Structures are given as structure tokens and as C-alpha cells.
Amino acid sequence: MDPDVIVSGAGPAGAFAAVLLARAGVRVTLIDRETFPRHKLCGDTLNPGGLALLRRHRLHEPIEQHGLPLDGMLVTGESGVRISGTYGPGLVGRAWCRSALDQQLLHAAASAGAEVRTGVLVQEPYLSHAAGRVGGVRLKTGDGRSEVLRARWTIAADGRRSRLALALGLIRQPAQPRRWAIGTYASGVSELGTLGEMHVRRGHYIGVAPAAGGAANLCLVTADRAGLHDPAGRLWAALH
Ligand SMILES: Cc1cc2nc3c(=O)[nH]c(=O)nc-3n(C[C@H](O)[C@H](O)[C@H](O)COP(=O)(O)OP(=O)(O)OC[C@H]3O[C@@H](n4cnc5c(N)ncnc54)[C@H](O)[C@@H]3O)c2cc1C
User: Fold this and answer.
1) Segment 214-238, tens digit of pLDDT
2) Strand ranges (DSSP E) for 88-194?
3) Domain limits, the chain
4) What is the 159 CA–ligand 1 centroid distance (Å)?
5) How far is the CA of 29 from the centre of ligand 1 (A)?
6) Which of 29, 36, 38, 42 to mutate for ligand 1's pocket (most ligand atoms within 8 Å of CB)?
7) What is the ipTM of this complex?
8) Is 139's C-beta closer than 6 angstroms to any atom of ligand 1?
9) Cα separation, 66 vs 95, whole angstroms
10) The domain 5-44+99-167: what is its CATH number?
11) In sequence order, which residues have a C-beta less than 8 Å from that of residue 38 and are 6 or more positions away?
């Protein structure tokens, strides 16, 4: 039987939507091209607003149990400026591995009754000309088969470069500005506290957040792709 709703993309947006729909009794199919757990470049931090949303929908336990507490953010600039802000009394964020968060949300969607299909690429919207609207999606399965999956509603949660939204002209990818990001987990980073950090410099910024086991999550976001073939070297150069 066709689902009522197809959700393309099982990142936080898609998996969360699938959880809520499935809990409400809607037949939902959640699709992702990746198999989980999958790595996703991320600073691994969740602010108190995000946590509150998870709590409201009883999805907060793993992150509150395993995540490291974050009290706010520190932002520094080139001229030595440092601005720190805390979330406020009683408010706390968490640092937790992003792949674990995404997998947890995917499991929650499946537990709520969503059909989860991973390793399946959503190629484009399926346009139902009779109905004059999107009637589902065209898929490519892991073994290379093409398939049309029909549904009354389709949610494009397939990220910033959403194939569905692009195909429907709902978004455009501007040529500029472009940004590239790399990241790693590093040990031996001193002075890690309970603030997430963002160090803004000319042409790039570096995010730092505490990670499990005393490590630090380091992400570099840059407007200059030079040197990215050697990510460790590029990150090291940016840090010095
Ligand atoms: C370097 C960096 C650091 C960041 N750090 C943080 C942070 O610390 N805290 C924070 O809150 N946010 C952070 N963000 C932002 C955060 O990653 C995004 O806001 C978030 O991932 C958006 O979630 P989403 O579900 O909309 O999309 P995504 O997480 O991008 O998920 C989209 C999903 O769709 C799937 N998909 C895509 N195309 C297809 C297709 N054609 N067919 C099937 N599946 C498809 C992908 O595999 C993916 O699983 C960071 C971003 C970057 C770049």
C-alpha cells in the first residue's frame, strides 16, 4: 500500500517529521540515500531550544544522558575581540555525536511505525499530471533498480542541496558565496570548557566544541578551497 507521506532525507528534519507523523497514525515512508549510522560533518552541538523540542516529543533521553553540557557560546575575532554569552539560568545545551543523534531519530521513526528505507536515492519528484501536483518520488534502490513511489504528500527534507526542491524550482543554488567545510576530532586541546566556540577569522571560521572522551570537535568553514586536498594540513594551518 502506498504511504500517505514520503519524507525524503533522514537527517534531523526528516526523521523528526517522520516521528511526529507516524505517532499521529499517518502512513509514512522515510528515505535516505545513506545507510545509518552515517558520518555527517557537524559541530555536534545542540542548543537549549533544540533540546526543548526533543524533550517535548520524548526524544531527549540519549542526548541528555550521554551529551556533554554546554552553557553558551564564545565567539572570537581577528582583533582579539572575545564575546561570550551564556544561555541563562536553567538552560543548557549539549554536545553529542551527530551520527548518534541522527541514528537515534531514525530508530524513533521506525519505532513509531514509519517505514524506513536507507541506501535509496530519491532522484526526482514524480509529477502526477492528472492531479497537477507532486504525486511521489522516483527512486533508485541500492541494487540499481528504478522505482516510482506514490504518496499524497512529499516532504523534501533532503538537505541544503535538496534535489526535490531544486527540481521544482523552490530553491536555487547561487554561484556565490561558496563555502567548504572540513572537520575532525582532536585530543589534547587545552582549555576546553562548557562553551561552544567559534573563532572568526578573515575568510574562514573554526568551530570548537567538547566531544566525548576529552576530545574536541574541530570544524573549519572556509571561503577558499585551496589546500583542502590535505584536510589535516589545512586545518592545522588555520589553527596557527
Ligand atoms: C561544518 C558544519 C557544522 C555544523 N554544526 C552544527 C552544530 O554544531 N549544531 C547545529 O545545530 N547545526 C550545525 N550545523 C548545521 C546542521 O548540520 C544542519 O542545520 C542540519 O544538518 C540540517 O538538517 P536537515 O535534516 O535539514 O538536513 P541534513 O542533515 O543535510 O540531512 C539531509 C539528509 O538527506 C539525505 N539526502 C540528501 N539527498 C538525498 C537524496 N537525493 N535521496 C535520499 N536522501 C538524500 C542525506 O543523506 C541526509 O541524511 C553545521 C553545519 C556545518 C556545515
Assistant:
1) 999 999 999 999 999 999 999 999 9
2) 93-95, 115-118, 121-128, 133-140, 146-150, 153-156, 180-186
3) 5-44+99-167, 70-94+176-239
4) 5
5) 19
6) 42
7) 0.98
8) no
9) 9
10) 3.50.50.60
11) 99, 102
